[in-house]
TrEMBL record:
Single GO BP term: SRP-dependent cotranslational protein targeting to membrane
GO-annotated cellular components: signal recognition particle, endoplasmic reticulum targeting
Quaternary structure and interacting proteins, as annotated: Heterodimer with SRP9; binds RNA as heterodimer. Component of a signal recognition particle (SRP) complex that consists of a 7SL RNA molecule of 300 nucleotides and six protein subunits: SRP72, SRP68, SRP54, SRP19, SRP14 and SRP9.
Native species: Porphyra umbilicalis (Purple laver)
Name of the protein: Signal recognition particle 14 kDa protein
Pfam families linked: SRP14 (PF02290)
């Protein structure tokens, strides 16, 4: 699949989470992307971030410019918070008495 726009990525990510609601995992990765130095550009473009998500079968990705990163992070945070509410806390291990003193 090619690069999606930011809104399309967020909606597809929500669909991935819904599909894996009962079981499975969704992985999200972010990577800074630098442009190829061999191809000169007339106007400098700010730094980009490549965001990828997969559930092991379906892969989606989008590129986020630095100026749009705050809005994208907020949208991404809303989706992740909405779909990770069912996580269970692990039980705390209780330590037994190290030694009995009499």
């Amino acid at each position: 699949m090619g690069l999606l726009d930011q809104d399309g990525f967020v909606s597809e990510l929500a669909k991935l989470y819904e599909k894996r609601k009962l079981g499975g995992s969704v992985w999200i990765s972010m990577k800074r992307v630098s442009r190829d130095v061999r191809t000169p550009r007339k106007q400098p473009i700010g730094a980009k971030c490549l965001v990828r998500a997969t559930d092991g079968k379906k892969k989606i990705s989008c590129a986020v410019l630095a100026k749009d990163s705050i809005r994208f992070q907020l949208d991404l945070m809303d989706v992740v918070k909405a779909h990770t509410g069912g996580l269970k806390d692990q039980p705390k291990k209780t330590r037994g008495m190290k030694g009995k003193t009499s």
